[in-house]
Write a structure and sequence with these properties.
Blueprint lengths: L8 H19 L6 H15 L1 H5 L2 H9 L8 H19 L15 H21 L4 H10 L3 H21 L5
Helix pairs in contact: 2-5, 7-8
Length: 171
């Protein structure tokens, strides 16, 4: 596999900001990802156990706030586009490979356990905070929401804390 350089991170950040502004201008809402996971979950539960979904407060509230099929949400299409775009980007830049990356003091088992635990914590945190990194923090800061600014500071503080605590696995 031929090694290629990634995009300049400052240019990528500026392009992400422009994409966020265009998204808010065209759709009236920002970017997000956790809402798509919630929509997938609601659609799955409604399909597999409709009696459970009808008798549970969470699903009833979701149905009141979102009319129609949960999979017809803007966020579901956005996340699907992100996955397709990421695959095409990897394909075009010759970076498609199934690999596990971890530091010299870590193992595959630790890396997988860390990813699973981190994913669960991310999901719980995004529901408690009413949005994920992109939805609550990035899009919230774009409209100068107090909650978005606080969320972004909390995310960076948490990231620095966990990076300090778990750095021995990566260096």
């Amino acid at each position: 596999m031929e090694e290629k350089n990634y995009m300049n991170p400052y240019l990528a950040g500026a392009l992400l900001g422009l994409l966020l502004l265009a998204t808010i201008y065209m759709t009236g809402r920002g970017l997000g990802a956790s809402g798509a996971i919630k929509s997938f979950t609601v659609a799955t539960v409604e399909t597999l156990t409709p009696s459970h979904a009808e008798g549970t407060k969470f699903y009833e509230e979701y149905a009141q706030e979102h009319s129609g099929n949960p999979l017809k949400s803007w966020l579901v299409f956005e996340v699907t586009g992100v996955l397709i775009g990421a695959f095409l980007s990897g394909l075009i830049s010759n970076r498609l490979a199934l690999s596990m990356e971890f530091g010299p003091r870590s193992t595959t088992r630790i890396r997988i356990a860390g990813a699973l635990i981190g994913g669960v914590l991310w999901g719980l945190g995004s529901q408690l905070g009413r949005g994920c990194t992109s939805g609550a923090a990035l899009s919230g800061m774009a409209v100068m929401s107090t909650g978005g600014i606080i969320t972004m500071f909390a995310i960076f503080a948490g990231a620095y804390l966990f990076a300090y605590l778990f750095r021995k696995f990566w260096i």
